[in-house]
Amino acid sequence: MEHYNMNLTLKVWRQKNKNDQGRFETLQAKNISSEMSFLEMFDVVNEGLINEGKEPIAFDHDCREGICGMCSMHINGRAHGPWDGTTTCQLHMRAFKDGDTITVEPWRAGAFPVIKDLTVDRSAFDRIIEAGGYISVNTGNAQDANCIPVDKTKADLAFAAAACIGCGACVAACKNSSAMLFVSAKVSQLALLPQGHPEKQSRALNMVAQMDKEGFGSCTNTGACEAECPKEISLTNIARLNREFIGAGLSSEK
Boundaries of each 4Fe-4S ferredoxin-type domain copy (predicted)? Predict the structure, then answer.
């Protein structure tokens, strides 16, 4: 793989807080290695800004291993950038060429207000999980791994749904700012397993109600969420959520 250095022009969204109007600021990223990650490139740019006595770019990051879902950025109009199935922290600068102009924005959704620059408040996802994205169990010794038989096909589907990292790319990519892919993944990973059955009805109803309360839009099945999801969560989870929600509504006590 060829290694090369490049000079880039960055158009980065700068915003002091959610009440600030915000603006794009043009910055130069010089002598950037093609082997750097996108966040490492930002580290270099921020070091330069700090040395010049300027305010560094605020952006979210944690593990930098594609696991935590913190690195939420729109890069040239795509959530997490040009590579499919990749988080921003795992996007490498070899995806770009010398002289490129890169536009970087935060997630654009009413339920994700901007905290500063590229950092948004995604605590709405936390409140959706608190509404029902868990199972209630008695504490004590852990049960034997083989004491509850689980169908292999359902276990695989639950594992695929559990791969969701809650980054919010599905919301950012959706024209309606819908959180259906996120909610459906969190519902599916529990609804498919026997441990999640006792609370399946209340889970679907409560999580959807909280999603609506947070101000996320409706799903119109355009598929943008699946296309931009870094973990490639399937749209079939949305169909499952709809079945769970309708079934819970029909069978719940009035």
Answer: 155-185
